[in-house]
Structure formats: structure tokens, C-alpha cells
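Posted in: Structural Biology > Protein-Ligand Complexes

Title: Requesting predicted complex, 6-O-phosphono-beta-D-galactopyranose in pocket

I'd be grateful if someone could produce the C-alpha cells for the following input. Sequence and ligand are given below.
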Amino acid sequence: MDFPKNFLWGGAIAANQYEGAWLEDGKQPNVTDVLVGIMSKDPGIRWNDATQKYEMALDDSKVYLSHEAVDGYHRYKEDLKLMKGMGFNAFRTSIAWGRIFPKGDEDEPNEKGLAFYEEMFSYMRKLGMEPVITLSHYETPLHLLTEYGGWSNPKLLEFWERYVSTVFRRFKGIVKIYLTFNEVNALFRMPFVAGGVLTVDHPKDVSDPIGSTTLQDQWNAYHNFLVANARTVQLARGIDEEIQVGCMLTCSGVATYPYDCNPVNVLGAMEAQRQNIFYFGDPFCLGIIPTYLNKRWAKDDVTVSFTEAERKLIRENTVDFFSFSYYRSTAYDETDELFADTGGMIGKENPFLKDAAPKPWGWPVDPDGLRYTLNVLYDRYHLPLLIVENGVGLDENLDENGTIEDDFRIHYIEEHIKNVAKAMEDGVDCRGYLYWGPIDVVSAGTGEMKKRYGFVYVDRFNDGHGTLERAKKKSYDRYREIIESNGAAL
Ligand code: BGP
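-- Reply #1 --
Done. Output follows.
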């Protein structure tokens, strides 16, 4: 296995799943703070008849683990040192937008939030890790949804631009790699968190805030995300020439294989790639608004239009690289509808895959699918690729030796990294592999602690108890060996 000398080896987390301290130092709630798991359909908000607005109303019977998460806000130095112990030369996390602009629409940023991230990112550099920073990882301030309807409202562009330019200026020289919106192509499956959309001026059913969000509002958000992404690239270029901006898409759906050679299934699989991945990838990377969307807009009965100036902006401000998550593959058969969760698309079970993660999650394991995905994306966009999420969540407990023999995870990463090497032999320009969840964090999809991805265990449980102590799992040493040998140990 031959990896280039400057290959980025590391891991990835997100502020909302790691930091906790949800209302500390001026931060205000963001969209994930009112959900127990982003797949959940009932956010802790309610309609106030008097104000004619939604407001936060958490459910006392639920445990919102993300509010304290794994206390990364206070423990990140200890954790980053553990990451360094594995030899990481890169680390991905996000900035919680609400630490910088607590409600999102303020004129002035919150100095405490800026100072916190400045210290954290500088500390990464000090340890020899390249900060890879997501500007928005399901962390739109809640106020922007309840007050403005979120990303369906073009006003968000103004707030976003203020936020990103503040960040670019403040972290100049410290952060050089930014990702815009985490898995933004999940907009239509998770309009509230991935789309940051809430229908507020004409809600159909106030008791069902997510279900009540209109398709027109979601497509307006699509429009605004395309503009926001291009503006981010443009702003970065104006502020700091060293910055590289990438998009970030969930790409497990790239490997939506036709279930068989029935042309209907081949066409269906092609369409699934377009409608789930490329409809964002094409404008972000190629600067074009794809014509295959016209049919979908007609079907959805929505109007989506871009001015000439917007088209030009999108055309001229494409991203510097493409980053993505990959967890698994699926198969398309016309008889089955495609679903999705945080791991990607779910169609028909693929009889050729031998492995699946243990239940209850049971995600199929397809390392070849990562090679396929890398090749498809590179062929289409000819941009450097960065894997910023790949990993496996397992239900684990410490054994009598105070560790966890997570052989399944070891096998998972070995096979996936081997396929990264194969894709590079195929000719793909892949710049790095950042494992998802190198330390146990709150699961995005279900909001649990029980679903653990870490090489480092954190003592915290679904009911919220736990010492928060950290312990190394067996995979910690294996990943260190792989990194130390630059892949040769595989
Ligand atoms: C992605 C998210 C991450 C992450 C991961 C694993 O969709 O970007 O935030 O958590 O999925 O998902 P889960 O935590 O649901 O297993």
C-alpha cells in the first residue's frame, strides 16, 4: 500500500455531537439541540398562538445527550493529544455557528466563541494536525428557523456571509481547509437539520413542524445553498488566498448499484445518483444547474429560478476540492422504493456483500463501494477528493482489562483503506482519509451514546450517566500502526 507522503490521516467529529456546553459562553440553541437524533421527526419546538411563531419547548421526558455530549468543550486538549497519539496529521471538526453568532442575525460576533475556536484550532496546529473545518454541520441557529424560516429565506445569505467572513478573517493563517455544508444533499430527507428549513409564514400543520415544511420552501433552500456555497468560495478567495474550500456531500448513495442488468434498474440507479448526489455536486463542482432537475421541479410543482447574476456566481466560484462521507452501498430495484438514513440510501439488499455491522444498526459493509465511489466522483469532477467520514458504529462496553477488542472495526478500516489505495492506483487523486468518530460522540441519527465509532471510548450512556473518562480501544493501536507506516502495515 503506497500513500503519498503528505496524505492526510486523521478523524472527524462535529461540534454538536462532541462539545456539549450547549448554552455556555453565550451560545444559543441550534437545530440539533432540540432533537434527540436527527432522524427524529418531532423537534422540541411548539407553535405559540400569541406570537404566531414557533419557539423552543423541550420534552422533559427525553434525554438530550447532545447538550453535554462528551464535554469536548472542556476536554478537547486531552482528546487532541489522544488523537496525536495515533499519529493524526489532520483533524476535522465543525464550528457551531451559534457560538459565533448566537442567534444568527446579530451584527457583532461573540468574542468568547471566536476565542474558543481560535485556541482549539491553534492547538491542533501545535500538535501538527491540519484543521479541516466544517462551517455548518447541522448547526444552523434555531432562531434563524423560527424567526425567518431558515434557509428558504434569502435573508440567511446575509447572515451566513457575515458569519463566514468573520471566521475566515479571524482564523487566517490557522485554518486553511474549510468545508461548507455537511451533507447538504440530505436536505430533502432531513429538511429541518440538513436543510435548516421551517415553514413559518404559512405552516400547514403547526403540530407537525417538519412534515409541514413545503417542497417550495425546501427548493428555495436548495437555491440559497447554491448561492451561499459560491459566495463562500468567493469570500474566501478575497480574504485569504491560502484557504481551500470544499463541498461536503453524503456519498453513500453514489454506490447505488443497479440490482441487475435490467435496463430499467440501470436507468433507475443512474437517476438515484443524480437526484441524491449530483444535483448538488454538479453546481458546486462544475458550476452548472443540471437540466435533469427540470422534470423533478415540474413533478414537485415548484418554481426554482436563478438570475443571470446568480448563474454567473455559481459558474465562476466552484469548489477547490470535493469531500464526502461514505458508509455503505445499496442496490436499486424498481420494485423497491429507496429510503435513507444517516448512513446513506437503503434499497434492496445486495446478496453479494458478505459483511454487515452487528444489529441493531446492521449497516452493510462494502469496501469496494468506496473505491467505486472515489472513481465515479473523480471521473465526473476531476477535483481532489477528501474522505471526511467513514466508520462503523458498534454497541460496546469496556471489558475487565478496561479496553474493548473491537476487531470488527479494525477489519472495517483495513478493508476500506485498502480500497482507497486501490482507487489511487486507478488514478484517483484522493488527498486524505478522516475516519468518522475517532472518539465516541453522540450519534447523529439516533442521538444515542450507545452507537460508538471511536478508537477512544468515552464513559457515557444513553440515560446520561457516566464519568466521561476516556479509554483506548484495540483499534487505537491498529490505526496508529497504519498511519505510522503510511499504509504499509496493511
Ligand atoms: C453522518 C453525519 C455525522 C455522523 C455520521 C454517522 O451523516 O455527518 O454527523 O454522525 O453520519 O451517523 P450516525 O451517528 O447516525 O451513526
